[in-house]
């Protein structure tokens, strides 16, 4: 039974305020914080009402406490419904989806703690068997880096040949280091600056970044024997010009219409053997997604982030139109854990690969590591370096250790 709820303003990794929530039950405790996006989808729930965290911090603790104190923390679905009722709007614009998601996650953690279970086991039932592969962020562009960086937002890698999570995260970091050397060799003025998600923020064209990314993958694969595949998040909505109806690549001075964009991305997938491409087409363009999926969906994961915004109804439309074959899962895009789980389920039953993901603004909150394991998601996207990124990766290392030693898991918790 929930006895107390505390809500406080804390820092996120960009230095912006966010909410942290503590939930106290008579025999448990849960704490969670909300992340925030920079290249958000237009159909996401509203993160905070006008005025941001400061606009609600005074009153939100009382409003939520009044309804939730006395409820059972393990009735997650009911609690999520109450949170949506408290807000009262379809897009959670009254108290904010970041408020509801932080409460929802903190309640789940408190419920897990009151059973003496880690969150991944409480949500996942019996001992889950799979640790997700970490999608690591290597080079940042677009909305996550300065103006001279590439237009493509994220150059990523996936260590598909890794046999455990420790090998996987250290392989990612080896590629990250190799990429730095290559950027430095090309640009003597490079200062080692990074973007919001811990990838390098270089003065490179998209093409140059692709070459460095993929040659680094190949070299590290050869040297370590762990196969690493290149991946991208284009975040194409960010450079779509809706007046001109073109994708504007400002670094190269090239504009592409939708058909040209589909062909360009398909060529990149072929040339660089991309394993995964996220948001290659702007949000809202289901047909463009479907065209690319038709061309490239057998050789590459075509993942929707801004287009689906973790929303089961919108994903259903995508499934109907065969738009994509993978979906990004960000709990704060939809506002509660129950709704997040519904979307994961819908994805899985329709053959879409769910990829649990961080946001560009993060805290050391490690909840998404547990969600990815509990829900048996094959991939987690949570960066490669940076304190708020390694918080999740290091938690996965701990979880794997527990999973391989079930007795230890029982004793420890
Ligand atoms: P955001 O972007 O967290 O800044 O919205 C991350 C992404 O596009 O995947
Ligand atoms: Zn994205």
TrEMBL record:
Question: Active site at which residues?
Answer: 197, 330
GO annotation, cellular component aspect: cell surface; extracellular region; phosphopyruvate hydratase complex
Q: Per the database record, which ranges form the Enolase N-terminal domain?
A: 2-123
Q: Check the record and name the Pfam families matching this protein.
A: Enolase_C, Enolase_N
How many and how are cofactors bound here? Binds a second Mg(2+) ion via substrate during catalysis.
> What EC number is given for this enzyme?
4.2.1.11
What GO molecular function annotations does the UniProt record carry, in alphabetical order? magnesium ion binding; phosphopyruvate hydratase activity
Q: Spell out the PANTHER family in the cross-references.
A: ENOLASE (PTHR11902:SF1)
Q: What does this protein do?
A: Catalyzes the reversible conversion of 2-phosphoglycerate (2-PG) into phosphoenolpyruvate (PEP). It is essential for the degradation of carbohydrates via glycolysis.
Question: What is the protein's name according to its record?
Answer: Enolase
> Per the UniProt entry, what species is this protein from, by scientific name?
Methanobacterium formicicum (strain DSM 3637 / PP1)
Gene designation per UniProt: eno
């Amino acid at each position: 039974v929930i006895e107390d709820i505390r809500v406080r303003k804390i820092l996120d990794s960009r230095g912006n305020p966010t909410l942290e929530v503590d939930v106290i039950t008579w025999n448990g405790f849960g704490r969670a914080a909300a992340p925030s996006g920079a290249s958000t989808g237009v159909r996401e729930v509203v993160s905070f009402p006008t005025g941001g965290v400061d606009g609600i911090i005074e009153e939100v603790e009382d409003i939520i406490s009044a309804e939730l104190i006395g409820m059972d923390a393990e009735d997650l679905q009911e609690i999520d419904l109450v949170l949506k009722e408290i807000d009262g709007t379809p897009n959670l614009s009254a108290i904010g989806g970041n408020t509801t998601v932080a409460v929802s996650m903190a309640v789940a953690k408190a419920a897990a703690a009151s059973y003496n279970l880690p969150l991944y086991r409480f949500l996942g039932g019996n001992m889950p068997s799979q640790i997700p592969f970490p999608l690591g962020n290597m080079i940042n562009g677009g909305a996550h880096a300065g103006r001279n960086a590439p237009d493509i937002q994220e150059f990523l890698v996936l260590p598909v040949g890794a046999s455990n999570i420790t090998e996987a995260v250290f392989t990612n970091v080896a590629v990250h280091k190799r990429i730095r050397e290559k950027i430095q060799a090309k640009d003597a003025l490079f200062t080692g600056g990074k973007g919001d998600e811990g990838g390098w923020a270089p003065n490179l064209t998209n093409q140059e970044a692709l070459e460095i990314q993929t040659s680094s993958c190949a070299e590290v694969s050869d040297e370590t024997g762990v196969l690493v595949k290149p991946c991208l998040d284009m975040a194409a909505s960010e450079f779509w010009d809706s007046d001109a109806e073109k994708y504007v690549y400002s670094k190269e001075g090239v504009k592409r219409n939708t058909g040209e964009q589909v062909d360009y991305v398909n060529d990149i997938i072929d040339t660089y053997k991309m394993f995964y491409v996220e948001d290659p087409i702007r949000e809202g363009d289901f047909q463009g997604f479907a065209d690319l999926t038709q061309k490239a969906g057998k050789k590459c994961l075509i993942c929707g982030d801004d287009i689906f915004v973790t929303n089961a109804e919108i994903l259903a439309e995508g499934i109907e139109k065969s738009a994509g074959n993978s979906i990004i899962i960000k709990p704060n895009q939809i506002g509660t854990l129950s709704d997040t789980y519904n979307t994961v389920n819908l994805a899985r039953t329709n053959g879409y690969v769910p990829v649990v993901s961080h946001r560009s603004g993060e805290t050391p909150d490690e909840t998404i590591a547990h969600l990815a394991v509990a829900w048996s998601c094959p991939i987690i996207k949570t960066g490669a370096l940076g304190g708020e990124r390694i918080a999740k990766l290091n938690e996965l290392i701990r979880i794997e250790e527990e999973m391989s030693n079930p007795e230890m898991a029982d004793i420890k918790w």
